[in-house]
Design brief:
Strand content: 15-25%
Strand order of the largest sheet: 2-1-5-3-4
Mean pLDDT: 96
Distance between the termini: 18 Å
Shape: globular
Largest sheet: 5 strands, mixed
Structural class: alpha+beta
Helix content: 10-25%
Radius of gyration: 11 Å
Amino acid sequence: MKLNIQLFGITKEIIGDSEIDMQISDNQTVSELLVNLKKQYPGLEKLSSLWVAVNEDYAESDYILQNNDIVAL
């Protein structure tokens, strides 16, 4: 599945871009996505909290992502 991840504030500074496209496996949750992002971008580990929105609505950690979702950090 493909996601578009939009980055704001400190996440934009850490990753070095305002958005990235990412391929993930089916049935992946927001929590699993964050684990993968923190592996790819270790600077995200330093954040004490991180708000996640999916398709313009705040998403809980157990939300199951869908193909072509737009995720904002």
